[in-house]
Amino acid sequence: MSTVIENLLLRKQKLVEQLAKAPSVEDRDKIEHQLEQISTALDFLDRPGSKEPR
Asked: pTM for the full model?
């Protein structure tokens, strides 16, 4: 599970860097949308009980 979280955090960091350099509003919107998806995934993975087998 930690590998998934590490990959998401790495992707988030790269997107934040790209956001600072994004030339157009459309590019920034796409990056912000991806950042929201990553945040949602991280929140889901960090929920209590999400690591317990079903």
From this structure: 0.79
